[in-house]
Amino acid sequence: MDRPVLPLVGAPRVERADAVRNRLHLLATAREMLAEQGTENLTMDGLAERAGLGKGTVFRRFGTRAGIFKALMEDEEQAFQKQVLSGPPPLGPGAEPLDRLIAYGRARVGFMIEHREITRAGLDGRQSVPTGSEATLSRMHIRMLLGQIHLGAADLDVLAVQLTAALEGPLLLYLSASDLTEASLQIEERTAQGWQDLVQRVCRP
Amino acid sequence: MDRPVLPLVGAPRVERADAVRNRLHLLATAREMLAEQGTENLTMDGLAERAGLGKGTVFRRFGTRAGIFKALMEDEEQAFQKQVLSGPPPLGPGAEPLDRLIAYGRARVGFMIEHREITRAGLDGRQSVPTGSEATLSRMHIRMLLGQIHLGAADLDVLAVQLTAALEGPLLLYLSASDLTEASLQIEERTAQGWQDLVQRVCRP
DNA sequence: AGCATAAACGGACTTTACCCCGTTTGCTAT
DNA sequence: ATAGCAAACGGGGTAAAGTCCGTTTATGCT
Chain B within 8 Å of A41 (Cβ-Cβ)? Predict the structure, then answer.
């Protein structure tokens, strides 16, 4: 007989069981090491050794060092978004879109400050700048809320990108400048207030 | 006699002549190599060798690989700003602040697209995200124009940061996503238009 | 169960950014 | 001039990211 054995073409197929196990184990190990040593001192060799796996495996799973941090952040992102989508009214459904947008910005600022170190580490120096989702979920949420606010003819997709950048950009700037052990609260408040002002300006009739 | 010979304390003093010479020579050499091989293939050893200098010197001058690209961009930035500050009216002085702001955004988009590769390479992966001026000049210009527009009580400093991010963020996002050999013009136009819409929204009475 | 195959694994190897420190050189004050 | 010295230079050394490829393993099919 001939070989029509080709199962599928090009399709990536499902992730194998051992792959899943190793990925989760590596992420858990990475979290441990991060808590103990900070992002700066996490090396690929170190992670592999501590996890009891080969270095090749680490790279196969995450592609790049930054990939690990991106994966970690994706988890946090998802938790955050779930909280946003199903939280109590100022943030979650039930309030006016504009109020939700304002509340979202405030929450997002807190979130970013909380996870600033991993976020930073997830930025890829080499090649494409904000590869991956980066802030995709955030942008989509903002985009959704904009759709519910009555704005004149406007390119909502572009506006969503702009607002996302206006929300996250300043944070990244501040977060990198200082180590903010104390200025933190002030920056958080100022940024949140600035977001509110901006959104109200943009969305007023 | 005692030694009041201490000339100054902590002050960095002036840059020595050989240092200046080497810095300029390295920048020129880097430009050559960039034109021939692209940013990706510029290595510190390669640069040092071609410039006929030691590797240590390259690092002493620029601190880091990204530092070279930052230095190159600083040159371009300065040229750009000069052009903006003393150019013909829609961009330079003589027009309404709001119109200048819009024109500035358009010019800036073009500038960024033109220099996207070096800009990207200048982003430091390791440590502090947008270290250095990055977009400081841009922000200051926007800040200045905002000051000339009559806006109600508003935190102009924060607003300037937000608008700068809203202008540059989307570009970085798009520029990284595609290699834009063709979509370029479309993206350029859409971003510029988006900027105009945003600014008009923010600044209307 | 047994087989075929694509995917995953491991770890040696390569490349490159960045550090260190002994040596050299341009300034400045005598 | 020239002595003293801070700054600059050079290039070998180190560490860590990322690649390669031969070996092992999970999975779907018969």
Answer: no
What is the CA A22 to C1' C4 distance in angstroms? 25
Q: How far is A139 from chain B (nearest CA, A)?
A: 11
Evaluate if residue B60 carries a pLDDT over 60: yes
120-139 of A, contacting B, C-beta below 8 A: 120, 123-131, 134
Interface contact A161-B175, CB threshold 8 A: no
Tens digits of residue pLDDT in B98-127: 999 999 999 999 999 899 889 888 877 654
List CB contacts (< 8 A) between B193 and chain A: 155, 158
User: Does the CB of B92 have a partner CB in chain A at under 8 Å?
Assistant: no
User: Mean pLDDT over residues A49-64, rounded?
Assistant: 97
B18 touches strand D (CB under 7 A): yes
CATH code for residues A13-63:
1.10.10.60
Nearest residue of chain B to residue A129 (CA atoms): B176
CA distance A198 to B53: 51
Would an 8 Å CB–CB cutoff place A152 in contact with chain B? no
CB B203 within 8 A of CB B149: yes
Q: Which of A195, A77, A78 is nearest to A145 (CA)?
A: A195
CATH code: domain B1-63 is: 1.10.10.60
Answer positive or negative: Cα dihedral of A133, A196, A171, A113: negative
pLDDT at residue A185 above 90?
Answer: no
A123–B158 C-beta distance less than 8 A: no
* Bridge partners of residue A95, in order along the sequence: A93
A201 contact partners, CB below 8 Å, separation of at least 6: B154, B201, B202
**A155 with B197: Cβ contact below 8 A:** yes
CA of A47 to C1' of C11 (A): 14
Residue by residue, DSSP assigns B80-148 as HHHHHHHS-TTTSBTB-HHHHHHHHHHHHHHHHHHTHHHHHHHS-SSSSTT-SSTTHHHHHHHHHHHHH
pLDDT at position B132: 44
Tell me, what DSSP letter sits at residue A40? G
Confidence of residue B174 (pLDDT cuts 50, 70, 90): low
DSSP letter (8 states) at residue A93: B
